[in-house]
Amino acid sequence: MLLDFDGRIEEVNAAAERFLGQSTAALHGKLPAHLPGAWGPALAALAESKPQSLRLSGLQTYRTHTAHFLDRGFTRRFIVLEELTQELIQQEKQAYGKLIRMMSHEINNSIGAINSILHSFYHYAPQPGPDDRPDYTQALDVSIARNTQLANFIGNFARLVRLPPPSPQPTDLHALLRSICRLLQPQSEERHIKWHMDFPSTPLFLNLDAQQMEQALLNIAKNALEAIGRNGNIWVRTTAQPPSVVIENDGPR
Questions:
Q1: Count of CB atoms within 10 A of residue 202's CB?
Q2: How many other CB atoms sit within 10 Å of the CB of residue 174?
Q3: Residue 81 half-sphere exposure, CB side, CA atoms within 13 Å?
Q4: CATH code (residue 230)
Q5: 136: domain range?
Q6: CB of 166 closer than 8 Å to CB of 208
Q7: SS3 of 50, please?
Q8: What positions does the domain Histidine kinase occupy (predicted)?
Q9: What are phi and psi of 118, to 5 degrees?
Q10: pLDDT digits (tens, 9 = 90+) for 75-95
Q11: Number of domains in the chain
């Protein structure tokens, strides 16, 4: 945002219009301190060489800072607004991923040691009396099984935050979409949600990782079901040139 000699807004670019939710005409002539919402107080307290962070509703986060230049011997200020939302989300995602991998490593190390000790206890299975022996071995079996399930769960969770590199193969996108529709059909029928597949019966082969693409499309389809709730429609359309897939729903949210 470029300010005039009196410190009022003179020009803004398209990004500033989007951030502030107002047009250039609406912003022209206003003092930054008089902008609506949290913007006004934040920009009023802005000082040179002291950038500030501003978090609006939800996750929307911005960095604001101001500087000046000389125009015909007079000082003019400008304000720079930078959106940090995606950068912060990415940083948080990396931090959570690192934490989950560290927890997975520690938990699996402990589970491995515990299971090793439990397996060694089978050596003592003949020692209890005939009445107690089944309970003894059953307790060992249950403990080892539960530990193994926990290790598998933690391992799968760690793999979720560290996707392997994609392995592209020629894959029929239409067949992939039909399989997802079949998978969600019982749930859809229970909710009275109809699927409309609007694409040719001929295959549409694309070079992609089938497993990762299937998971991504499945997540989108589940979100569509959740958005509808009950009694609605889901449309699935594809185009060959350029290759694309569109999934729409008529849900209220």
A1: 9
A2: 19
A3: 21
A4: 3.30.565.10
A5: 88-160
A6: yes
A7: strand
A8: 102-253
A9: -60, -40
A10: 889 998 887 766 666 666 777
A11: 3
